[in-house]
Amino acid sequence: MRSIARHRLAVAVAAMLAASTTTSTAFAQSLDDVAAQPAPTTDEEPTVLDTVSVLGSRTKPRTEASSAVPIDILDGEEFHRQPSVDVLDKMRTLVPSFNVSTIPIDDAATLVRPANLRGLPPDNTLVLVNGKRRHRAAVITFLGHGLSDGSQGPDISVFPSMALEQVEVLRDGAAAQYGSDAIAGVVNFSLRQRDQGGAVEAFAGEYYEGDGFTEQYSAQVGLPLTARGFATLTAEWRSADATSRSVQRDDAAAVAAAGYPGVADPVQVWGSPQTHEDMKFVANFGISGDSVDFYGFGNYAKRDVEGSFYYRNPTDRAGVFSNDGGQTLLVGDLDTGNGVGCPTIALRDADGNLLPYAGVAAAVAALPGECFTHLSQFTGGFTPRFGGRMEDQSLVLGLKGMWGEGWYWDISGSRGRNEVEFYMLDTVNASLGPDQPADNEFAPGANVQTETNFNFDLVRDLDVGFGTGVLSLAMGAEWREEEFEVIAGDPSSYAIGPLVEQGISLGSNGFNGFNPRVAGSHSRDNWALYIDAESQLTEQLLLAAAVRHEDFSDFGGTTNWKLTGRYDVSDAFALRGAVSTGFRAPTPGQANAEQVITEFADGHLLDSATLAPTNPIAAFYGAEPLQPEESSNASLGVVWNSGGWLTTLDAYRIDTEDRIALSAGFEVTDADRAALVAGGNPEAASISQVKFFVNDFDTTTTGVDLVSSYTSQHFGGDTTYSLAANWNRTEVDDFTPGIISEARVKKIEESLPRTKGYLGIEHQRQVFHASLRLHYYGSFYEDHLDSDVVLAADGGLPIHGDSAVTVDADIGWKFASGLYFSLGAQNLFDEMPDENPWSGVAGARYPVHTPYGFNGGFYYARVGYEF
Q1: pLDDT value at position 605?
Q2: From 400's CA, which of 196, 260, 725, 749 has a CA 20 to 30 Å away?
Q3: Radius of gyration for the chain, computed over Cα atoms and rounded to the nearest angstrom
């Protein structure tokens, strides 16, 4: 049935490409798009056709070699075979301009890792599934290490890789075709379609260090949906142990040396977080009628991830243990009305040395009953643990068919929802004194992102009197609503306890709960109209143009355009290029989200509040309502396709204005605090720093992508050599000092390696297959702990990481019975970055944002059965 389906589509697409008979993107999402149609009665051998992509043009799909813009088409089987279990890490392996880091201690970014295409933030890349827009995640990346600060992108890790037929990456601006967010490019996940058979698979792996054990189980089944339909169901379950690449902090070692009991070693863990559960389910289904087809797809996923936070030193943590830099212990008076005061307890001598714990403990034991200190409970300090339970679901339903003479239409509706419920363990709301919740657990609340989309698309070829006589035309309309909801936490997570007036901090320490004042829903809607035209003016020259207008309920309208061309100099060589404008609308979350977190800045931990631009406290420091980002994009490339070689080389330039990001932190002085509290903002009493989203800086991103492959019959089988490389540079052209810091500028410009690429060999001979891939990562810059200061002389923690080469290898066998298995290793030779020169500050043995990770080599085994 599957080969017959391929034959039907091959014939249909071949005829379409030869005679310019167009189809909409929904009609040709993959090579199995008509797998549910009844089998033809023919003895013809199946026709082999190149894989096609729906990206790059709204009028017709094209092969990678014939596209007028750069597109990577990743085969689903090869994609699934990559040694990583997370889709994000698989993308990083196969697409050089795609970067994602491990993110060990970064609040909500630990749950939904930010990914960067062409050096731009996660929300500058549009994600589609089967050609339909994917909803965003509820996580806003408050800590994104400069480049991704404040971004709110989709979570693509919710898809099991077994569910994918192919992954298409359009590396070109496409806002005029697809709308907001498509500044860096577009990623489309095409889901598999099968009406029979299936597969089951088990995967297990572990790091060379002996930690991070990962197990994953996947299953897929294809079912007939009536006589002319299909339903493909894919499920995956995964768990992963945490890793630790940590050393003992210098301050923790000093505390232990002074005799303080209960100091763990290491006291703070840097590594991949623990995944308690990661469950994913995807359904793809459709029924083909005589004139109208029905289709649908959706997903459900849930994930529970838990990681470490910063250590709270019992001798100097502000707001909990000491408010004078560690000279004296912070002691709260639980009864200020009886005239009895609490004595002062010294923590250090006149030279700043820690006093022995025995003397401090004796003084604490002698305190009057109404005097309270958290040192009584946490003699060695404490390290909060932060986690989140994510739930993601979506459903897309649509109809498509032909209207009149050659008008193909597609109407669809979708709804997606992503919720992240946060939790804190092993921490306190210090202002509550001894009245802490059971087991020191807090529920700070949740964020929810919900999106609803309706689309109507028309595609037709028109007979015209110029060129080859055919103009391919696509047009459509879209309506979308986005809603961002903040759900309040449990009262103890945001409570203003009785000790707050004595300088003791409020809220669950490390991640304050959302209070009822900031809780609520914020939404906006928009509508859009687009038209996309394409014509093969001569046998050699292809030209295309697109224009799109969108109108948003919160800031008005924007119109964007794109011009694309390709000139085939010969059968083997072609020139191609594009120019376009683009935009990205600020999300309701960025315009309204608020959160108080603990971060490392200027050499110490402090409570930093990220506030909505409309918040009175943010306005006090100059915040204004957000406006959309605007961009212009230009690319120029060449294509060589001859003798088994396919090579593309594309240069690009992306100019972005009014980029949206988090501002620098504004210190809340005592005078500011008094004025704000007097003005009706009591929460100002417990925060040390204020940030807000702002349109402030402009950037220029330039780069070159090289992709080349060669197919051969070397070594007695089918052997493919592939080379892919990216050179990318981002420069900040304009910014406002004080709003965007120079340290932030340096992170934007230098945190990612400017050069990244790989050389791979894939070999298939009968039942045996093998792959070898060498990855190159250029040098990088890390502002360790986001100290927000550029030079070490000024107190910063700069790290200049060297370039590196890592090697992935995989061998396996796939038998006619359907049984298959493979063995392999990621980072085969255990390449590690140079050790962190500032490791004693917070205990990270290696730079935590090394582009190839810091966990080292990972070996694995995979076994499965297809039926």
Answers
A1: 55
A2: 196
A3: 29
Q: In Å, what is the CA distance from 203 to each residue of 91, 272, 721, 811?
A: 19, 19, 26, 14
Q: Token pair for residue 317?
A: 């943590």
Q: Band the pLDDT of 56: cuts 50, 70, 90.
A: low
Asked if residue 857 has pLDDT above 80, the reply is yes
Is the confidence at residue 316, as pLDDT, over 60?
Answer: yes
How far apart CA 105 and CA 114 sit, in angstroms, is 13
Collapsing DSSP to helix, strand or coil, 571 comes out as coil
**CA 307: distance to chain centroid?**
17
**Distance (Å, rounded) from C-alpha 864 to C-alpha 822?**
9
Residue pair 208/232 in contact (Cβ under 8 Å)? The answer is no
pLDDT at 304 over 60: yes
Tell me how far apart the alpha carbons of residues 723 and 707 are, in angstroms, rounded to a whole number.
6
Within a 10 A sphere around the Cβ of 229, how many other Cβ atoms? 20
For residue 89, name the pLDDT band (cuts at 50, 70, 90). Answer: confident
Burial 266-302 (b: 16+ CB within 10 A, else e): bbbbbbbbbbeebbbbbbbbbbbeeeebbbbbbbbbb
The Cα diameter of the chain in Å comes to: 100
30, pLDDT greater than 90: no
Q: Establish how many alpha carbons lie within 13 A of residue 276's alpha carbon, considering only the half-sphere containing its beta carbon.
A: 11
Q: 106 pLDDT band (50/70/90 cuts)?
A: low
Residue 795 neighbours by CB distance under 10 Å: 12
Alpha carbon distance 28, 695 (integer Å):
39
- Kindly state the helix (H) or strand (E) to which residue 480 belongs, with its residue range: strand 470-488
Single out the residue of 116, 17, 39 nearest to residue 728, CA to CA.
116
- Angle at the Cα of 34 (from 33 to 37), degrees rounded to 5? 160
Tell me which residue has tokens 């390696």.
Answer: 753
CA 611 to chain centre: 22
Using DSSP's 3-state secondary structure scheme, residue 276 falls into strand
* DSSP structural state of residue 44: P
Q: What is the pLDDT of residues 240-261, one digit of tens each?
A: 999 999 999 999 999 999 999 9
* Integer Cα distance of 297 and 272 in angstroms: 32
Is 302 within 8 Å of 277 (Cβ atoms)? yes
List the Cα angle 426/430/432 in 5-degree steps.
Answer: 110
Do 61 and 447 form a contact (C-beta atoms < 8 A)?
Answer: no
Contact between 664 and 739 under an 8 Å Cβ cutoff? The reply is: yes
Percent share of the chain, pLDDT over 90: 62
Q: What token pair was written down for 112?
A: 């939904």
Handedness of CA 146, 148, 152, 157 (dihedral sign): negative
Q: Is 864 left (phi over 0), alpha (psi -120 to 50) or beta?
A: beta
> Burial level of 344, CB count in 10 A (0-12/13-18/19+)?
exposed
CA angle 302, 306, 311 (to 5 degrees): 160
DSSP string, 662-697: EPPPEE--HHHHHHHHHTT-GGGGG-SEEEEEEEEE
Structure tokens at 267: 């006291």
Q: Is 107 left (phi over 0), alpha (psi -120 to 50) or beta?
A: left
Residue 595: what pLDDT?
75
Q: Is 103 left (phi over 0), alpha (psi -120 to 50) or beta?
A: left
Structure-token pair, residue 10: 């091959």
Interatomic CA distance for residues 303 and 322, integer angstroms: 37
Strand partners, 732: 699
The predicted-structure confidence for 425-482, as pLDDT tens digits, reads as follows: 999 999 999 999 999 999 999 999 999 999 999 999 888 877 677 899 999 999 999 9
